[in-house]
Amino acid sequence: MTQAAGAALSALLLAGCVTAPAPDSLVVPPPPEPVAEMQAKEPEVPGGMQWLYGSAEGASSSIQTYRALERFVAAAVRNRPRDSVILQEGTSLPSASFVPCGKKPFAIVLDADETAIQNQGLEYALAARGVSSDRPVMNAWQNAPQTAAPAVPGAVEALRNIRALGVTAIFNTNRDSPTAAATSATLNSAGVGPAEHLKTLFLRGDVDGKSGKDGRRGHIASNYCVIALVGDQMGDFTDVLNERGLSPLERRRLASTATIGGLWGNGWFLLSNPVYGPGLRGSLDEVFAPEYRWNKGN
Amino acid sequence: MTQAAGAALSALLLAGCVTAPAPDSLVVPPPPEPVAEMQAKEPEVPGGMQWLYGSAEGASSSIQTYRALERFVAAAVRNRPRDSVILQEGTSLPSASFVPCGKKPFAIVLDADETAIQNQGLEYALAARGVSSDRPVMNAWQNAPQTAAPAVPGAVEALRNIRALGVTAIFNTNRDSPTAAATSATLNSAGVGPAEHLKTLFLRGDVDGKSGKDGRRGHIASNYCVIALVGDQMGDFTDVLNERGLSPLERRRLASTATIGGLWGNGWFLLSNPVYGPGLRGSLDEVFAPEYRWNKGN
Q: Chain A: nearest CA to B210, how far in angstroms?
């Protein structure tokens, strides 16, 4: 049974709809299965979760990305770049400028969720409820240290090797600042730490009190030569691509321009996350450009 | 309205359920919206399609992977490897052996669908129908040259640069052999060709008549030093990971072992595809290992 069909059945039950006539028929249909049996059916898992948390393809993708990150960082350490890979505040994309490295020590800046760790425990709880979001459940998850959040495949070894080069790994997450202790414990128990608040861990509200990460990135870049950014969403790299009013395809085009497109795998490293985030947006006409709306089948 | 809610509404309509009592009430509810208006609602787009075809994150992910491929290929051309990245027939994973390169000319072997091109026209047609698969629609799509199948972001430039190094790009797809002319035209019009049947394009049924791609890979490796494999599913790299009876997590573990895990981004390059394929499989308990089944929320 598909997820949609499951939801449909639930809706029929919720609606108390037990006398639906069979299509093209006035014959009274057989009674439906008992409610208990139907509710006992296991919820379906969204395809994005199957791919990211349960598939060979999902694991291979992140192993590949962390390997590329490690190689890039090793090369940057051998040959110190002039600039960090962090955009200057107020820079415009066509003529983007970056924060200078000077003689600052090396660092990489990573997002936490679905970048360094996978929130499998939380997503299991959400999938079991058949929902994509549930604030009380998410708060319960983020406010306590968790062991059901494994490292993203490839992250532990790559971060170990990167730190061995003398590069500091700094987490910049949008979990709220009051969850710092729990977030640090969760990252450390996954094996991707150390993560120490305001040293190697920055959260939403830190530095400038804003939800965008640019202020925290600027603060980190004032103390470090940031040779790589790692994340699963555009906001982990620059707030520019999260501006309101950008349609999905405008945002996609901006991420592919010479300036930004030239950074992917070249200082900016993206982990695929088809489970949640601004990348999962858009109606049919917002996702598919007019020239690709083929519909000649049948 | 969520996809599930949309399906639920449709189900209520299909079931002719128009007298559902409001929860906790015996009051007759107001009549539902007219059927025509509800059916006019646009179908929702699966999250995987939003991410892969319509998001900045999806485009960034493939640009990054093609950049890594191009760098790897350039290094291999400068320093000829001893072996192809194609497993010897009948090799076992723990002690995997690869086909020797000898003095054979260089090639890379790519899958076509969601690796070199995106089947946006087809997926638009399926999403518009609210289905994930429809054989007649898929046949109509594959049996004619299509222009609604853009190149995967990053593929055109990378393939141009790779061919400029004297490396042959060969497509190994599981579209059926009789679609060779249409498939070749579709690849060429997307700008990722040339694709010439039995020279730079192999399809299901070619070489050994099998649906697995190992036979075709072996044939190509007998004529070329294959320095990279590119695909979106395990079958684009080895049939071993598609053996029946492998659970999703067993398959995931095998792809992460030293032998196979060491190849990701290191000869084997995976494009993320959360839209279809063997990676989108599994119940809650097949996707989430017991230690990650947190459910303490609420």
A: 23
What pLDDT is attached to residue B34? 44
What is the least distance, in Å, from the CA of B196 to any CA of chain A? Answer: 25
Q: Do the Cβ atoms of B274 and A43 come within 8 Å?
A: no
Confidence of residue B93 (pLDDT cuts 50, 70, 90): confident
Burial of B96 (0-12, 13-18, 19+ CB in 10 A): middle
B270 has a pLDDT exceeding 70: yes
Average pLDDT for B147-165? 98
Separation in Å, CA B192 to CA A285, B118, B276 = 26, 11, 22
Q: What is the pLDDT of residue A297?
A: 64
- Give the total residue count for chain A: 298
Residue A298: the pLDDT is 52
Tell me how far apart the alpha carbons of residues B51 and A151 are, in angstroms, rounded to a whole number. Answer: 22
Q: Does A150 reach chain B within 8 Å, measured CB to CB? A: yes
Minimal CA separation from B68 to chain A, in Å: 7
Scanning every residue of chain B, which has its alpha carbon at the shortest distance from the alpha carbon of A32? B15
Q: Which residues of A are less than 8 Å from B277 in CB distance?
A: 57
Q: What is the ipTM of this complex?
A: 0.87
B141 neighbourhood in chain A, CB within 8 Å = 294, 297
Closest CA to B222 of B209, B211, B207, B236: B207
Amino acid at B107: A
Instruction: Identify the residue whose tokens are 């573990």.
Output: B253
State how far residue A245 is from chain B, nearest Cα, in angstroms. Answer: 14
Distance between CA atoms of A264 and A75, rounded to whole angstroms?
16
Q: Which long-range contacts (CB under 8 A, 24 or more apart) does B137-140 make?
A: B137/A297, B137/A298, B138/A297, B140/A296, B140/A297, B140/A298
Nearest CA in chain B to A295: B125
Are the C-beta atoms of B148 and B120 separated by less than 8 Å? yes
Q: Which two tokens stand for residue B30?
A: 């107001």
Check B124 against A284: CB less than 8 A apart.
yes
pLDDT at position A163 over 80: yes
Q: What is the mean pLDDT of chain A?
A: 88
